Amino acid sequence: MLLSNNGAVLLAATTGIAAVQAITLEVTNDDSIRSAASTIAYGMMTYYTGNQTGKEPGLLPAPYYWWEAGAMWGGMVEYWHYTRDNSYNDVVAQAILAQESPTDDFMMPEEADQLGNDDQVFWGLTAMTAAERSFPLPSSANVTYIQLAKGVFNDMAGPRWNTSTCNGGLQWQFNPNNTGFYYKSSIANGGFFQLAARLARYTGNSTYSDWAEKTYDWMARIGLLDSNYYVYDGTDDSINCTAIDHDQWSYNAGTMLLGTAVLANISSPNSTSIWATRAQGILDGAQEIFFSPYPNATNVMFEFMCEEASTCDNDQFSFKAYLGRWMVAATQMLPSLKPQAMDLVTSSAQAAAASCSGMNASVCGTKWYVGGWDGTKGLGQQMTALDTIQALLVNGTEPPLVVPGS
Ligand SMILES: *[C@@H]1O[C@H](CO)[C@@H](O)[C@H](O)[C@H]1NC(C)=O
Ligand SMILES: *[C@@H]1O[C@H](CO)[C@@H](O)[C@H](O)[C@H]1NC(C)=O
Ligand SMILES: *[C@@H]1O[C@H](CO)[C@@H](O)[C@H](O)[C@H]1NC(C)=O
Ligand SMILES: *[C@@H]1O[C@H](CO)[C@@H](O)[C@H](O)[C@H]1NC(C)=O
Ligand SMILES: *[C@@H]1O[C@H](CO)[C@@H](O)[C@H](O)[C@H]1NC(C)=O
Ligand SMILES: *[C@@H]1O[C@H](CO)[C@@H](O)[C@H](O)[C@H]1NC(C)=O
Ligand SMILES: *[C@@H]1O[C@H](CO)[C@@H](O)[C@H](O)[C@H]1NC(C)=O
Ligand SMILES: *[C@@H]1O[C@H](CO)[C@@H](O)[C@H](O)[C@H]1NC(C)=O
Ligand SMILES: *[C@@H]1O[C@H](CO)[C@@H](O)[C@H](O)[C@H]1NC(C)=O
Ligand SMILES: *[C@@H]1O[C@H](CO)[C@@H](O)[C@H](O)[C@H]1NC(C)=O
Ligand SMILES: *[C@@H]1O[C@H](CO)[C@@H](O)[C@H](O)[C@H]1NC(C)=O
């Protein structure tokens, strides 16, 4: 495969495939945004086979892990919320509820060997989104979305909050058989932090905000967040968290950005609170690390650790989806973030749309900064483009629901 100097992708003649017209996206035209999102969602849903006869609803086929399915359904709930296209709602609700588990907390026994705190929290955050968006609940459901989100919270706020080392924190894996049992990761703790913050806002119950604050404080004390508000990957509890893995992944910043913005929203009537300062700091940090890889790609999002070196794995291909999704959600919680966040998301959405020109316009690429399709395709590529583009519709949409006392 060759990249031409104008960024269009020319495939080697032997493949017999030519680059095609990209998705057209006018970023200030709601119909254009809806149409782009619909094309990309269609491409994304071609990866889903769980609703076919004999397959298990909710799951994606290999090589995609259980967690990513949970994360994808969150993007599809947002798809309906932003576009009001309900074509996939039945499939999405069936998928979420099929993984509810006997204990109503997404603790699926058959996923035990790949089910860590981060995996479970992605499903919990999806259930939380479904509750906040009043996503239609099938009449056959025996549980509500908010009950599922609370089920996940209750697991993590129990004995899994492990004070025997590092004075607290969640391990990445809670199953001693799994690699990562001795690692306290930002995605596990940051996911829990965000879930707790959103439960606090939704219910008005301060037990949740107390946990959110405790988790943030622990992460900052251990050094998973620094004075630049960079969010680092994790730390080793077998050495009492005395060393930090300084890798930076966009989804870690995303979890912390929305969580801090939610706490700003519920803790202060204006944007001067400590949580607003933190949210602004995390946005600034994310802008420095995850945007503008080259002078020719100002404000275009990229996955700092792996994208330019072409070493992203299937999980990592999807990470930008969560930064895009949560950055925009944060603007509704803390409007002072809006001009900066929407500039970043708008430029990224434009570049993402240009990348959707693979075998056809419903096939998107990874490296948005090349100005076209980069020759890669996959579920993560669809998710990142969808989450980033559909969020441009945020102006016309309701903020997340609150149900005080629930
Ligand atoms: C959303 O509203 C802001 C003003 O609050 C405006 O600058 C921006 O262009 C709007 N975005 C879209 C996509 O309509
Ligand atoms: C599965 O869902 C897709 C939408 O993604 C739909 O097109 C298809 O008809 C569904 N298949 C079955 C068997 O229900
Ligand atoms: C709901 O049904 C599932 C099986 O479909 C079961 O595992 C779960 O325990 C049930 N939950 C409640 C609250 O009845
Ligand atoms: C807490 O962490 C320690 C050290 O990693 C571990 O030995 C212990 O099993 C953990 N406790 C729980 C409940 O996971
Ligand atoms: C482990 O780290 C925690 C938190 O940083 C600290 O409070 C504790 O004293 C340390 N324990 C040991 C045995 O060094
Ligand atoms: C860990 O592995 C052992 C041995 O295979 C098994 O008996 C046990 O149930 C596993 N524990 C969990 C929590 O999956
Ligand atoms: C707040 O949430 C906690 C944790 O679920 C629960 O134990 C407590 O009863 C709730 N408080 C109120 C007033 O609902
Ligand atoms: C903003 O809120 C803080 C307390 O949260 C208060 O001290 C300050 O006076 C408020 N500022 C404005 C401009 O309302
Ligand atoms: C909290 O969120 C609501 C809903 O988006 C918004 O109207 C309000 O301005 C926000 N409050 C603060 C302090 O940012
Ligand atoms: C687009 O191309 C992909 C990959 O070859 C294929 O699976 C999909 O069916 C195509 N979509 C359309 C609308 O032609
Ligand atoms: C921008 O520059 C980078 C690095 O030289 C290059 O890989 C990329 O293709 C360029 N993008 C465009 C749109 O020309």
UniProtKB/TrEMBL annotation:
Coiled coil: none annotated. It comes from the Eukaryota. It catalyses: Random hydrolysis of (1->6)-alpha-D-mannosidic linkages in unbranched (1->6)-mannans. One of its GO terms (biological process) is fungal-type cell wall biogenesis. Residues 1-22 form the signal peptide. It is found in: Endomembrane system. Its EC number is 3.2.1.101. SUPFAM superfamilies: Six-hairpin glycosidases. Belongs to the glycosyl hydrolase 76 family. GO terms for cellular component: endomembrane system. Its main location: membrane. This is Mannan endo-1,6-alpha-mannosidase. PANTHER family: MANNAN ENDO-1,6-ALPHA-MANNOSIDASE, MANNAN ENDO-1,6-ALPHA-MANNOSIDASE DCW1. It is an enzyme of class 3 (hydrolase). The keyword Phosphoprotein does not apply. Keywords: Glycoprotein, Glycosidase, Hydrolase, Membrane, Signal. The keyword ATP-binding does not apply. InterPro entries: 6-hairpin_glycosidase_sf, Glyco_hydro_76, Mannan-1_6-alpha_mannosidase.
